[in-house]
Amino acid sequence: MDRVLDWIDEGTQLCRGGMAELDAPSLLPGWSRRHVAAHLALNAEALGNLVSWARTGEERPMYPSAEARNADIEAAKSRPADELRSWFEEASAGLTAAMGTLTDAQWQTEVRTSRGVPIPATEVPWMRSCEVLIHAVDLGTGPTFADLPTDFLTALCDKIRSQRGNVPDVDGPLPQLAAYLSGRPYVDVLGSDGKPAQELPPWL
Length: 204
Ligand code: ZN
Hints:
It is a single chain. About 35% of the residues are buried. This protein has two domains: about 1-145, Up-down Bundle (Four Helix Bundle (Hemerythrin (Met), subunit A)); about 145-204, 2-Layer Sandwich (Nonspecific Lipid-transfer Protein, Chain A). Helices cover about 55% and strands about 5% of the residues. It contains eight helices and four strands, in the order αααααββααβαβ. A hairpin with a 5-residue loop joins β1 and β2 (about 120). The two termini are about 20 Å apart. The strands form two sheets. A two-stranded antiparallel ribbon has the order 1-2. The chain has helices at about 1-20, 35-55, 65-75, 80-100, 105, 125-140, 150-165, 175-180, and strands at about 110, 120, 170, 190. α1 packs parallel to α6, α2 (about 35-55) packs across α3 and α2 runs parallel beside α4. By secondary structure, it is mostly helical. Bound molecules: zinc ion.
């Protein structure tokens, strides 16, 4: 768990650097950096709902609905850049503080992801680490998967392979494999036939 909290810190730091200039496209299709910043702030609040659920036992979904989640991102992206940045900081710090209050028993509470998958609350820090580290790359300001912690990349590849369930047998450098499995741009990932691997749809 401590290591996952380090990953969150590292990703938050990278995102902070990537939000210096928000008026530019991100690497995600159809999303500007403003969309990514708003999504990261809203995601911290949404994961905070799961922490609250774990603490009180009273059900609190991440988002009211997928439509509400997307509408909130669209509405928030037009806020002044400084406001988006400070909202990201406050929401990120709020989530970290809230996670710090959970007891061992509360961490075991079963909550649900935005897709309705039941998970123990112990998965919440992992989910946040994926959001901040992968979207730090998506912001498109320089960091690549090769800049992310190696042990995070290993954990990410294992997790996506088990969640996707149908990943072809591929080989390549670890950062490129992580990019490939996440559905992000990659190079040098080859299938067992030695040919370039077929793209996967985005994960996360
Ligand atoms: Zn995301």
